[in-house]
Amino acid sequence: MTRQLNTGPNIQKEKEMVGKMIKLYCRRKHHHTDELCKECQNLKTYAHMRLSLCRFGEEKSACSNCNVHCYKPKYRQKMKTIMRYSGPWMLLYHPVYSVKHLLNKPKKQIKSVE
Ligand SMILES: [Zn+2]
Asked: Are 114 and 52 within 8 A, CB to CB?
């Protein structure tokens, strides 16, 4: 293997976001307050690995918009459930990034009043 792992800022940010979403889901659904349950920990490790290996690297768009289905079906299903659950919460906590990321719509231009 000669491929380099992604370590750029976008990938790091996405890893962080995925971790937060999984944590939120685990806390509310599995009632694990401090650490993730084994299942969620597994998924997080897997998701981080996929991001490290994403062929688009820093140029990647939202995973939900991607044509390359790099997740194994088992993990993809679980991730979908978590995204659907945690997505709205993320909008609350991290409005700008989440909107951009989850919906991946071009942001409406806000006119500067400077
Ligand atoms: Zn869990």
From this structure: no
Give 23 Cα–ligand 1 centroid separation in angstroms: 8
35 C-alpha to ligand 1 centroid (Å) = 9
The pLDDT assigned to 96 comes to 58
What amino acid is encoded at 14 in this protein?
A: E
What's the 78 CA to ligand 1 centre distance in angstroms?
11
Q: What is the value of pTM for the model shown?
A: 0.77
> For residue 68, what pLDDT is reported?
84
Long-range contacts formed by 88-92: CB under 8 A, 24+ apart: 89/24, 90/17, 90/20, 90/21, 90/24
Measured CA distances, 14 to 2, 29, 30 (Å): 24, 22, 23
